[in-house]
From TrEMBL:
<feature type="transmembrane region" description="Helical">
    <location>
        <begin position="442"/>
        <end position="462"/>
    </location>
</feature>
<dbReference type="InterPro" id="IPR003706">
    <property type="entry name" value="CstA_N"/>
</dbReference>
<protein>
    <submittedName>
        <fullName>Carbon starvation protein A</fullName>
    </submittedName>
</protein>
<feature type="transmembrane region" description="Helical">
    <location>
        <begin position="227"/>
        <end position="243"/>
    </location>
</feature>
<feature type="transmembrane region" description="Helical">
    <location>
        <begin position="264"/>
        <end position="289"/>
    </location>
</feature>
<feature type="transmembrane region" description="Helical">
    <location>
        <begin position="158"/>
        <end position="179"/>
    </location>
</feature>
<dbReference type="GO" id="GO:0009267">
    <property type="term" value="P:cellular response to starvation"/>
</dbReference>
<keyword id="KW-1133">Transmembrane helix</keyword>
<keyword id="KW-0472">Membrane</keyword>
<feature type="transmembrane region" description="Helical">
    <location>
        <begin position="186"/>
        <end position="207"/>
    </location>
</feature>
<comment type="similarity">
    <text>Belongs to the peptide transporter carbon starvation (CstA) (TC 2.A.114) family.</text>
</comment>
<dbReference type="Pfam" id="PF02554">
    <property type="entry name" value="CstA"/>
</dbReference>
<keyword id="KW-0812">Transmembrane</keyword>
<feature type="transmembrane region" description="Helical">
    <location>
        <begin position="411"/>
        <end position="430"/>
    </location>
</feature>
<dbReference type="InterPro" id="IPR051605">
    <property type="entry name" value="CstA"/>
</dbReference>
<dbReference type="GO" id="GO:0005886">
    <property type="term" value="C:plasma membrane"/>
</dbReference>
<feature type="domain" description="CstA N-terminal">
    <location>
        <begin position="4"/>
        <end position="164"/>
    </location>
</feature>
Length: 483
């Protein structure tokens, strides 16, 4: 219990200390107009309040990741707490803040456009394909998971196909309608359900005196389960997630002032880390250790764990509300995943999105592909999503490092976590069954060598960019030219 409580406190302290430090390093400009006003189009560029933007950002980035991921990560024991806290403060929140703020400085540009500008034009095509694939996988996965949870919640009385169809209809509307018409209006209510359910479970753990394990020298990896690099691909959204880099530009287009960025981007990642801590602690404490948790996961997956935790801690009524809160998470990330895919494709082909017809012809193929992907095995989709997710996080962190390097600021805040995860990404794909299936020792050597080469290339490119005075932001007078 002490480890759990200390970690929660550390996350909160991290927001007020390291978050403030990162904000100071970046250097906000209070007088600079944001894209929400300069590029206002009534569809994607719409000024909204800080509380509303914060809640939308939290729900955008918090899919099933901060619940299902930590539940799976709980199999590794309390070491999962360390990754959530360290990863969230020094990697995930930095990642979210930098991508959001750099996007604000560049008319709300998405990651492919930022990668093209700061990492080279070739990267625009690579990252564009990567980001769209990631978003399609996210959107598809976040159709299946809430549908299955709702099917269970309804005791099977509503056909799974009907639920899936209903979710798709909502996603289509949320993708095509102006951001303030559906997302802006529904998310505050969705957010209330999410926060109530998570806080309820957290308080329940404390009140009931749940036997949450403490960190010691003997319980870092129960049952000798391998930690590196698998833990970093199991717990993503609660610590570090490239998916967030596809979501922050949505809110960079609705943020009123740069000063609000720390609350919206850094702060909401910390909030997600707290949610992850709560569900990881619950999973560790209520099933008699990793073996009991493994049995429940094998029988019914993370959804069964969520249902059991919610009912045991909060009772029948409270448990139902908690499950609804978990259902909200993927739905409120799935809708913005498809919306982001539409915006990225439109940006890539330079198609203005003010007209409904322009949004429609981009959205139709996206949803058509997603329907096909729903026929693929969920576990296979999730493994590819996990790797693509963290690979995207690496790219986003290197974009942040390049921006800060050119600006002659402390680029290490992005480069260190980016390089660390680059090693993990390369090592994982070299060893994994979905990758090259090399022995782990060879995969580690390949990952370290590959990361070293890429970091050297980064520094060479960064020095050229600095020497050429690469512009860090779009001039205000050019905003409307590229809207």
């Amino acid at each position: 219990m002490y480890t759990f409580l200390i970690c929660i406190v550390l996350l909160i302290i991290g927001y007020f200390t390291y978050g403030k430090f990162v904000e100071k390093v970046f250097g906000v400009k209070e007088e600079r107009p944001t894209p929400a006003f300069v590029n206002g189009d009534g569809v994607d560029y719409v000024p909204m309040s800080t509380p509303k933007n914060s809640m939308i950002q939290l729900l955008n980035i918090a899919g099933t990741g901060p619940v299902f991921g930590p539940i799976m990560g709980a199999l590794y024991g309390p070491v999962a707490f360390i990754w959530i806290v360290v990863g969230c403060i020094f990697a995930g929140a930095v990642h979210d803040y930098l991508t959001g703020m750099i996007s604000i400085r560049n008319r709300g540009a998405h990651l492919p456009e930022l990668a093209s500008k700061f990492l080279g034009k070739v990267m625009k095509h690579v990252v564009n394909a990567f980001a769209v694939l990631l978003l399609l996988l996210v959107g598809t996965v976040f159709v299946s998971t809430p549908a299955s949870l709702l099917h269970v919640l309804a005791d099977g009385k509503i056909a799974l196909g009907i639920i899936i169809a209903a979710i798709f209809v909502y996603y289509i509307l949320a993708t095509l309608m102006p951001v303030d018409k559906i997302i802006g209006r529904l998310y505050p209510y969705f957010g209330a359900i999410l926060l109530l359910s998570s806080v309820g479970v957290g308080i329940g753990l404390i009140v009931k005196g749940a036997p949450i394990p403490e960190i010691s020298l003997t319980n870092f990896h129960p049952d000798n389960a391998p930690i590196l690099p698998l833990l970093f691909f199991t717990i993503t959204c609660g610590a570090l997630s490239g998916f967030h880099a596809t979501q922050t530009p949505i809110i960079s287009r609705t943020t009123q002032k740069e000063k609000q960025g720390r609350k919206i981007f850094y702060g909401m990642m910390i909030a997600e880390g707290i949610i992850a801590m709560i569900w990881a602690a619950a999973a560790m404490s209520l099933f008699g250790g990793s073996n009991g948790l493994g049995d429940v996961l094998a029988a019914g997956g993370p959804g069964a764990v969520v249902s059991e935790i919610s009912t045991v801690i909060l009772g029948a009524v409270g448990g139902t509300i908690a499950v609804l809160g978990v259902v909200v998470l993927p739905i409120t990330s799935g809708d913005t995943a498809f919306r982001s895919a539409r915006m990225i494709i439109a940006e890539y082909f330079n198609v203005a999105q003010k007209k409904f017809s322009s949004r429609l012809w981009i959205a139709i193929p996206i949803f058509g592909i997603s329907v096909v992907l729903t026929q693929i095995d969920f576990n296979l989709l999730w493994r590819y999503f996990s790797w693509a997710n963290q690979a995207t996080a690496v790219i986003a962190l290197f974009v942040g490092a390049m921006y800060l390097y050119i600006a002659r600021k402390n680029y290490w805040i992005a480069l260190i976590p980016g390089t660390f995860m680059l090693v993990m990404v390369l090592t994982y794909i070299l060893n994994a069954q979905i990758g090259f299936r090399l022995p782990m020792n060879i995969a580690w050597v390949g990952g370290i060598i590959g990361a070293t080469v890429l970091v050297v290339i980064f520094f060479l490119a960064a020095r050229r960019a600095r020497a050429n005075n690469l512009p860090l932001e779009v001039d205000i007078s050019d905003y409307n030219k590229v809207a």
